[in-house]
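During the second half of the funding period, the structural biology subgroup turned its attention to how the target accommodates small molecules. The most pressing case was C2E, which had performed well in the primary screen but for which no bound structure existed. We therefore specified the complex as follows and requested a full 3D prediction, including the ligand pose.
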Amino acid sequence: MRNELQEALRNGQLFLNYQPQVDQLGEICGLEALVRWKHPVKGMIPPVDFIPIAEETGQIIQLGQWVLSQACRDAKQLLDKGMLNTRVAVNLSPLQFHRLGFLDSLQETLLSTTLPPVNLELELTEGILMHDSQGAIDILLELEKQGIATSIDDFGTGYSSFSYLKDLPVQSVKIDKSFVDNILVNRKDAAVCQGTITMAQQMGIKVVAEGVETQEQFELLKSYGCKAFQGYLFARPMTFDDLVLWMRR
Ligand code: C2E
Ligand code: MG
Ligand code: MG
């Protein structure tokens, strides 16, 4: 897998999909870049099957840098077409975030792609923030100063979800799909969603519900005050070209 991944990086087998986020009216309010690997023999390999390996081998640094540059180039293209008035979110692995020189290489990517920082968002996992939290907070503050937004992905699946949020300079949290999945059938999952939405918004932090698949989930989340949504109900992840068509429609 390591060698094949190296080849994938070299031979352009990786590409990006984009999944829109929408507001309560169904209008686009964000985009997430999701990496895809089209293997010449094995076909499509999902990120859950290769991201963990790339993290183990350290290849995630190169992969993550490719994703970031490509997403910034695509975002700039949308911006130039007059089609982008939101941020494009990129997933970051802990290794990337904690790497010395991360901020410099990020700056360099924004400069070389000429994407304004206000059009970029970085998605971090709770794990990134748990390990060396003061170091992480310093980086988050610097990102905020530069106008780059950060969000906590898969919120609620880590250990210390609730009270530590008050110390983190992040702009949004994404409620994990596992809670949204059961929101209609499990009172406790519903409570996690409702509690997260209320707490985060009271702190001035935006909430995105992930993995919204049904109208009923959407309605319930709206009734809890949630203002941003991502999921198959609205749009599946799609290629850049399909995204452009989707946005035009
Ligand atoms: P994530 O960042 O939480 O991304 C959301 C995942 O949920 C995506 O899976 C997306 O396709 C899927 N999804 C969205 N809406 C729905 C829905 O309504 N129903 C269902 N069943 N699924 C939905 P995907 O693309 O397979 O990515 C899985 C994970 O792989 C991501 O989770 C992220 O953690 C990681 N990943 C993807 N791209 C990158 C990347 O460029 N860098 C890094 N470090 N990780 C990435
Ligand atoms: Mg994500
Ligand atoms: Mg997630």
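Two results from this model are relevant to the next phase. Residues 98 and 177 are 26 Å apart (CA to CA). The pocket of C2E (ligand 1) is lined by residues 19, 34-35, 46-48, 51, 64, 67, 91, 93, 123, 153-154, 177, 210-213, 230-232, 237 (CB under 6 Å).
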